[in-house]
Amino acid sequence: MTDTNPSKNDAPEERKGARLLAQREEAPLIARISLGLGAIVTIISVTWAIDLWLELGFEWFDEQAMMTCLGLTLGIIFLRFPADGSKRRLRLPWYDAVLAVLGVATCFYIVYIYGDIEANPFMMRDTAFVFSVILLPLVWEALRRTTGWSLTIVFSVFLLYAFIGHLMPGMLKGVEQNNIRLIAELGTTNVALLGLPLQIIVLTVVLFIWMGQLLLHSGASEWFTDVATAVMGRSRGGSAKIAVVASGMFGSISGSAVSNVASTGVITIPLMRQAGYDAKSAGAIEAVASTGGQIMPPIMGAAAFLMAELLELEYTEIILAALLPSALYYLAVFVQADLEAAKQGIAPVPKDRIPPFLRIARQGWFFLLPYVVLIYVLFWMNLPPQQAAFWAAVSVVVVSVVFSYKRHRISLRQLWDAIASCGRASADIIVIGAMAGIIIAILDRTGLGQALTLILAAVGEGSLFLLLVLTAVVSILLGMGMPTSAIYLLLATMIAPSLIKLGIHPIAAHMFVLYYGLMSMITPPVAIAAFAAASLAGSKPMETGMTAVRLGWIAYVIPFVFVLSPALIGQGSTTEIVSAAVTAIIGVWIASCGLIGYMFGPLSLIDRVIFFTAGILLLLPADAIPYGFAVNGAGLVLGAIILVKDYTTHRRKPAV
To answer: Contact 217/418 with Cβ under 8 angstroms?
Structure first.
């Protein structure tokens, strides 16, 4: 049988494109230094998560570990990211070398004196002020270099408000601050820069990034693709279904839609193009599938663990809440990929490229063990998420050394690369965590958090729908270009608390901002995941982005539904949950048919509009709108009428 991996035989240029998407072009010495710093970040996070230092008798504050990681992160950023935003770093300017050393030295000195700051904050205030004056601008510049101007401007507005908020009119008027004390505390205390967001990232998120890096280096992404090919390859549009399944499975652990596009898209996009999908559709399907992995249990790109920590809920509750919405998301993508194949006459994957399922399962079954370990440690042993991530990552190493997939075992060099790449890849999320902690402190100290709640309440009093629309738009704008954990952390800090205070269910509020923050990955004008997929597919970025919006339409609708009726996130009686699930599944299927314009055959424009309308009527929560059951019933009747009409029209026609 021929090799079933197109990444080896058919797409060298695509593989090169994926590497360029995933890596920056930099001088060897800079790469080695930044990887070395990244390795130290990973080692600190891993050893801290399992309390190794405490077991060895070495006691230090959690804040010291966080500040150490932040200092190393600043060093990585100023080494790797040029001030002009380019991806080429062939030489290191003297000023960036100075900034890198200054960032590391400042943070390390704060680590050295942190015990005194904690024991006597009043006596150490002047010292803390001096080092905060150095550290805060470094964090600001690191944020600008890694995330761009949009988030940096938001951060700047909050910083400015901290100093002049007392001069603002009306509800926006804040509490006047002692500037020296404010600066000292923003840069050195555990209720600001060293607060809960940075702690969660360093303690938990970095470990899941490490687990993802280990799976990537061990060949797990290739195995996921092979399994999807074996299962889906024989059906119409099998190549697209392979992309949906493979990218969804790997996307849940990757923590970044863009890196997932780069790793799995290099295989799936050429496969879809060869099957007959046009370039924009192939890129859009991969982008939407990769983005959806970030909302799919059990890991959700580590967002599930962040949500559990912030809401102080059991991890199990978050997973159960996310289950049905993520299933609806992938149902919509799957149905549209299938109907698009029928509409365009796209054949299944050639038989000689479909590996036997039993052979693939036998060769790579061990890749499932880390998931088993993760779930066992979380649910049966009831250990914290960081320890579950550690043991799952260890299991990846063990199975990758003991077993081999296609004669490949993970090497010592790859183990080191996974450790070093993890810390380096965590740089942007760590600096965003520092920023989020500062924003939380400003919201609390100035009273701005309460003011924002009052403003949202004024909007929501007139129209809850308008409030949700504004929140959705803001979430998309703030989420542009950031990894999953960073998007969620920012929005959970700034927006979700106000929604909760207005009476929205806490899980629904957090899931709402997570969904819309992630939609920035496929929503133009930024749509970074869609643009990354477009570069691999050779399609126009904006066309690919718009196609991705159409394929991911359910993600723009379903958050409104579970805010109005939390039954879709498992909050309600069994009858309510089952009823909401059944009507939603039928509604997603019917509406997707209307969007594609195909059921048993091509649909007329009128039929498409009726189909889509019927699907939306079925999606509307019966318990949250007047005459809800009648509305659902009307959607079901409309859909049934068009379905029967379409079947009658096309049943005697030959299959396309």
So the answer is: yes
Give the single-character DSSP code of 378. Answer: I
**In this predicted model, what pLDDT tens digit does every residue of 27-75 receive, in sequence order?**
888 989 999 999 999 999 999 888 887 777 777 888 999 999 999 999 9
Structure tokens given for 613: 């309308």
* Cα separation values, 456 from 55, 171, 245, 583, 648, Å: 48, 11, 39, 31, 51
Burial 516-528 (b: 16+ CB within 10 A, else e): bbbbbbbbbebbb
Specify the higher pLDDT residue, 387 or 651: 387
How many whole angstroms from its chain centre is CA 101?
Answer: 31
Mean pLDDT of the 469-497 span: 78
- Higher pLDDT, residue 502 or 64: 64
* Continuous H helices in 204-256: 206-218, 220-232, 238-254
pTM above 0.85, yes or no: no
Is the pLDDT confidence value at 96 over 70?
Answer: yes
DSSP H helices in 312-411: 315-344, 357-364, 369-375, 385-402
Choose among 385, 70, 393: nearest CA to 213.
393
Q: Is-contact 235 241, C-beta < 8 A?
A: yes
Q: Output phi, psi for 447, to 5 deg.
A: 85, 5
Instruction: Please answer whether residues 125 and 184 qualify as being in contact, where contact means their C-beta atoms are separated by less than 8 angstroms.
Output: yes
Region of 276 (left: φ > 0; alpha: ψ -120 to 50; beta: rest) is left
Contact yes or no for 250/477 (Cβ under 8 A):
no
